[in-house]
């Protein structure tokens, strides 16, 4: 095998691990900075939100998806386009509520938790909570107020990782008085 | 496989959060934030370096290792190669990136020059961490004369 080919593979592998490793370093640092897991969870959610409100622009520019007409379409786009684009995985969509305002994303593999084990004294830590904030922030920018939370987590011994998404309400555009 | 944009978004948010948390108005506060970011970069650099297979690590000379950083590591992390590598052949290397991706969003020229160091600290640590795993102890600092060009100075520490 030529040296060039080896180099390409190594770069690709390092690139995919970079985000995971950086995220791990961030969580570790937050655990040092904040006294309890709840505060770390909140901080991860807040940071995720800040990322989400900017990520949505990147997503819309690169994915060419049109406006979603309902929550089901939104779910499809999140799982099949967004997760695929950014994390290279396609979660499955399950457990729709009868009213169609709640669903679950099931992640067989969560790339964020490669190489991670939760230490004993952090049982309340929601390690991947950044993702919930990202979803919330991104959707808010397309006029949807949602709640996202982890209900199953492989890091805590569950078989899969499950994020429950709940539609709260449509956010109306606030136009200045006098405009159409 | 995580998309490259995710790292950039995460990095920007990390800088904002850690800066807010660790800074106090005095000069000491700033330094602490920079060293927290540098430390995180160091651990990530080590982890990246640890995952390289043995064949990659069979470098002949110190300068080969620096070239590896400029090509393979930089492509993996920033999807581009370092633009130039210079050395005094006495253990000091200057790596120059003419359009450093983590600075690009910040506008160009002299505006925001003061902000630049916080966006370089993690990467300095990253370089130092990877060098550490490759058997080289170093001091890595960065300087910006005009965004988005920056220079990373690597000074090899002889044991």
- Helicity level of chain B: 40-55%
Please indicate the count of domains of chain A: 1
Beta strand count of chain B: 4
Please indicate the percent range of residues of chain B in DSSP E strands (runs of 2 or more). 15-25%
N- and C-termini, Cα separation of chain A: 65 Å
Number of helices of chain B: 5
How far apart, in Å, are the first and last alpha carbons of chain B? 38 Å
CATH class of chain B: Alpha Beta
Question: Under the CATH scheme, which architecture of chain A would be assigned?
Answer: 2-Layer Sandwich
Q: What structural class results from the helix and strand content of chain B?
A: alpha+beta
What is the helix content of chain A? 40-55%
Output mean pLDDT of chain A. 89
Could you describe the largest sheet of chain B, including whether it forms a barrel? Answer: 4 strands, antiparallel
Just name the CATH architecture of chain B. 2-Layer Sandwich
CATH superfamily of chain B: Trafficking protein particle complex subunit 3
């Amino acid at each position: 095998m030529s040296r060039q080919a080896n180099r390409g593979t190594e770069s690709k592998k390092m690139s995919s691990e970079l985000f995971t490793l950086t995220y791990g370093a961030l969580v570790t640092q937050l655990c040092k900075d904040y006294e309890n897991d709840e505060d770390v969870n909140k901080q991860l959610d807040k940071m995720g939100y800040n990322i989400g409100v900017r990520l949505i622009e990147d997503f819309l520019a690169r994915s060419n998806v049109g406006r979603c007409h309902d929550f089901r379409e939104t779910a499809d786009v999140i799982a099949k386009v967004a997760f695929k684009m950014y994390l290279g995985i396609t979660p499955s969509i399950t457990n729709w509520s009868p009213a169609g305002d709640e669903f679950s994303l099931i992640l067989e593999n969560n790339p964020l938790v490669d190489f991670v084990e939760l230490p004993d004294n952090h049982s309340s830590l929601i390690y991947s909570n950044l993702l919930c904030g990202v979803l919330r922030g991104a959707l808010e920018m397309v006029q949807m107020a949602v709640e996202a939370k982890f209900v199953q987590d492989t890091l805590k011994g569950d078989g899969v990782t499950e994020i429950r998404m709940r539609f709260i309400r449509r956010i109306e555009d606030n136009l200045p008085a006098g405009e159409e | 496989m995580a998309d490259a944009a995710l790292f950039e978004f995460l990095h920007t948010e990390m800088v904002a959060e850690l800066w807010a948390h660790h800074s106090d108005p005095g000069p000491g506060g700033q330094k602490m934030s920079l060293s927290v970011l540098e430390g995180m970069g160091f651990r990530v650099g080590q982890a990246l370096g640890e995952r390289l297979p043995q064949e990659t690590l069979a470098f002949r000379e110190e300068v080969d290792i620096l070239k590896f950083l400029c090509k393979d590591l930089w492509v993996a992390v920033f999807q581009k190669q370092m633009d130039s590598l210079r050395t005094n052949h006495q253990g000091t290397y200057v790596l120059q990136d003419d359009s450093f991706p983590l600075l690009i969003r910040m506008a160009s020229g002299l505006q925001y020059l003061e902000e630049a160091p916080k966006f370089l600290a993690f990467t300095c640590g990253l370089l130092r961490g990877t060098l550490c795993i490759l058997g080289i102890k170093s001091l890595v600092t960065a300087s910006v004369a005009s965004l988005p060009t920056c220079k990373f100075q690597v000074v090899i520490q002889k044991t």
